Each structure stands twice: as C-alpha cells, then as structure tokens.
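TA notes, week 10

Several of you asked for a full example with nothing omitted. So below is the full record: structure tokens for the whole chain, then the designed sequence directly under it. When grading your own attempts, check the secondary structure regions first.
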C-alpha cells in the first residue's frame, strides 16, 4: 500500500486591505530619488501605458426604472470610468419643453425624486460625458418610461 502524501500547511490569509497598502507602498517607492523603471517592473508597479478611448465616439449606457415614487437612472460607463470627469443626465418630462438637466453624476446611478404627475406621462432620459466644460462623445440612446397616474 502506498504511503499517504503529506500536504503543506495552508497558506495564511492576508489581512484585509492588502491592495491599498500595496498601492501606498508603491507610491512611496516611486517617490524615492533612487527609483527607476526597472525597479518598478520587478515589483509589478509598472504597466503598459493606457491610452484613453476616442472621446469623439464614447457613449454612456443608460437604463431607467421606477421604484416606488422614484425613478432609478442606471449608468454604464462602458469601461471608460477613468477618462470622463462625470456623466451629465438630462430628462424630458413630457411637458413639451424638451430635455432639461437632471443631474451630474459620478457613480453608477442616480435617483430622481421629482414627484410623479397625477396623470400618466412618458419621461425620457439620456446622458453624455462632459470633460472639462464641454460634452464629448455621443448622447446615450434615450430610455423612456411611463410614470404617474
């Protein structure tokens, strides 16, 4: 009968927050006068240069749904979160005035708490990325939902 194998002891768990601690350490190492790119590559702190998306063609993804007496506007940054400053959301509340600014948002979604009308009305939302003081890219595909009533 063969002998049972002897397995190594389990690897000890890493304390929570290892990534922020590693990033802080790399920042400290990179600030040192003797730092060079070879050191950073050896430590895994240097990576390929990231180029941003073509800002003329980026387009946010947007969803909208009602939850109770609010409208939840969901944003999909499409993997480009590091490049635009924020997302501008507009809403057309169906009163014939067209789109108006709803919010500037930096998260994955926004809650519109405007009161619902007494009669059912179609609200339409859209979004675009501003960079600096100018909108870039394309407006999102508009999403509509009926609220009120």
């Amino acid at each position: 009968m063969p002998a049972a194998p002897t397995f190594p002891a389990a690897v000890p768990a890493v304390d929570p927050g290892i990534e922020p601690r590693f990033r802080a350490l790399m920042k400290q190492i990179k600030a040192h006068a003797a730092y060079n790119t070879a050191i950073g590559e050896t430590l895994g702190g240097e990576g390929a240069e990231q180029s941003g998306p073509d800002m003329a063609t980026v387009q946010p993804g947007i969803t909208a749904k009602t939850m109770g007496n609010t409208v939840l506007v969901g944003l999909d940054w499409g993997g480009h979160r590091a490049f635009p400053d924020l997302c501008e959301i507009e809403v057309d509340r169906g009163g014939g005035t067209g789109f108006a600014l709803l919010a500037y948002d930096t998260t994955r979604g926004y809650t519109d708490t405007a009161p619902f009308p007494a009669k059912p009305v179609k609200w339409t939302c859209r979004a675009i990325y501003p960079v600096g003081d100018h909108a870039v890219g394309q407006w999102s595909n508009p999403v509509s939902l009926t609220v009120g009533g």
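The two ends are 79 Å apart (CA to CA). Use that as a sanity check on your answer.
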